[in-house]
Amino acid sequence: MDTRFHRMANRPGVQRPNGAAQGKICQFKLVLLGESAVGKSSLVLRFVKGQFHEYQESTIGAAFLTQTVCLDDTTVKFEIWDTAGQERYHSLAPMYYRGAQAAIVVYDITNQDTFGRAKTWVKELQRQASPSIVIALAGNKADLANKRVVEKEEAQTYAEDNGLLFMETSAKTAVNVNDIFLAIAKKLPKSEQATGGAGTSGQGRRLVESEGSAQKGPGSSCCK
């Protein structure tokens, strides 16, 4: 099993350096929340491994993964907790978003109920998570736009009213998947989470290389 992809029952693996890191390194905890089957695990799998599985098993409890992106001379390492969407696991959610610097709340653009549930998650984060948490709203399954029931404008307005980042994404086609994580990385306070001695994973380097200049945010601050 890849050490970057562990079920909750297993102890998360330690990411080993594959060479010297470029510039400073910032490490952040990020949690994904949303109703079951909206595509949370698929988004993470696409971001971390560049893969998509048509039939993804439901997450039990939570899954832990890591991935890095590069902003100018700063490497941002995400420690990602992909939580289960089933109602019976809701009581466990605070364990994962407690201390998180970022969250992605995911809904399915073809399912109105999942958008309503996403709003509930946003309220819970605003009430119980860190006051400085960066929250992104992801309208997933953008590849199924012909079956859309949640209008993009409605979600955009809601996100703006609540100070959220917003993008419609598709884990299947990879549309905006890297972009939403990159947008979060740009918004996080780089001066607070500097860590030394860690390396960039091979997958992280491939992501940076494949994205090229898109990974370099103009005016991004580095860790001090």
TrEMBL record:
<feature type="region of interest" description="Disordered">
    <location>
        <begin position="190"/>
        <end position="224"/>
    </location>
</feature>
<keyword id="KW-0449">Lipoprotein</keyword>
<dbReference type="GO" id="GO:0005525">
    <property type="term" value="F:GTP binding"/>
</dbReference>
<dbReference type="InterPro" id="IPR001806">
    <property type="entry name" value="Small_GTPase"/>
</dbReference>
<keyword id="KW-0636">Prenylation</keyword>
<keyword id="KW-0653">Protein transport</keyword>
<keyword id="KW-0547">Nucleotide-binding</keyword>
<dbReference type="Pfam" id="PF00071">
    <property type="entry name" value="Ras"/>
</dbReference>
<comment type="similarity">
    <text>Belongs to the small GTPase superfamily. Rab family.</text>
</comment>
<dbReference type="InterPro" id="IPR005225">
    <property type="entry name" value="Small_GTP-bd"/>
</dbReference>
<keyword id="KW-0813">Transport</keyword>
<keyword id="KW-0378">Hydrolase</keyword>
<dbReference type="GO" id="GO:0003925">
    <property type="term" value="F:G protein activity"/>
</dbReference>
<keyword id="KW-0967">Endosome</keyword>
<dbReference type="InterPro" id="IPR027417">
    <property type="entry name" value="P-loop_NTPase"/>
</dbReference>
<keyword id="KW-0342">GTP-binding</keyword>
<protein>
    <recommendedName>
        <fullName>small monomeric GTPase</fullName>
        <ecNumber>3.6.5.2</ecNumber>
    </recommendedName>
</protein>
<dbReference type="GO" id="GO:0005769">
    <property type="term" value="C:early endosome"/>
</dbReference>
<dbReference type="GO" id="GO:0015031">
    <property type="term" value="P:protein transport"/>
</dbReference>
